[in-house]
UniProtKB/TrEMBL annotation:
<dbReference type="InterPro" id="IPR037401">
    <property type="entry name" value="SnoaL-like"/>
</dbReference>
<dbReference type="Pfam" id="PF12680">
    <property type="entry name" value="SnoaL_2"/>
</dbReference>
<dbReference type="InterPro" id="IPR032710">
    <property type="entry name" value="NTF2-like_dom_sf"/>
</dbReference>
<feature type="domain" description="SnoaL-like">
    <location>
        <begin position="13"/>
        <end position="113"/>
    </location>
</feature>
<protein>
    <recommendedName>
        <fullName>SnoaL-like domain-containing protein</fullName>
    </recommendedName>
</protein>
Length: 120
């Protein structure tokens, strides 16, 4: 694993942990200027957010929701790209969950792109 890959993986782990631990403030130093986020909804393309503040506001809203329980299935990185495979629960029932993936890009130690996809 290259040093760029290690940095990318570390940043993605910190990013995902903010959601698992409901610590939106941990996102503050992870999101870069010019960030672009494509959310998983609404279908078919998802909402698009552009700019650091727009992405940070959206992600902080998700991370702060006590009703959402994220769990990482896998975090993978290569150079400036990374993938987070995750599970999301919002209730106790078998149908109260989904699985998805975020395709991420890191530049200069900050997340600058996050593309979200879910199993439909």
């Amino acid at each position: 694993m290259t040093s760029d890959s290690k940095v990318t993986r570390e940043i993605l782990e910190r990013f995902h942990n903010a959601f698992e631990m409901h610590r939106p403030e941990d996102l503050d130093d992870l999101i870069g200027e010019g960030c672009v986020l494509e959310n998983t909804a609404p279908a078919p393309d998802g909402a698009r957010y552009e700019g650091r503040e727009a992405c940070l506001t959206f992600w902080k809203g998700v991370a702060s929701s006590a009703d959402l329980v994220f769990k990482a299935e896998e975090i993978w990185a290569s150079e400036d790209r990374g993938i987070i495979r995750w599970q999301l629960r919002w209730g106790e029932g078998e149908k109260d969950r989904t699985r998805g993936v975020n395709v991420m890009r890191v530049r200069d130690g900050k997340i600058v792109e996050g593309l979200g996809y879910v199993k439909g």
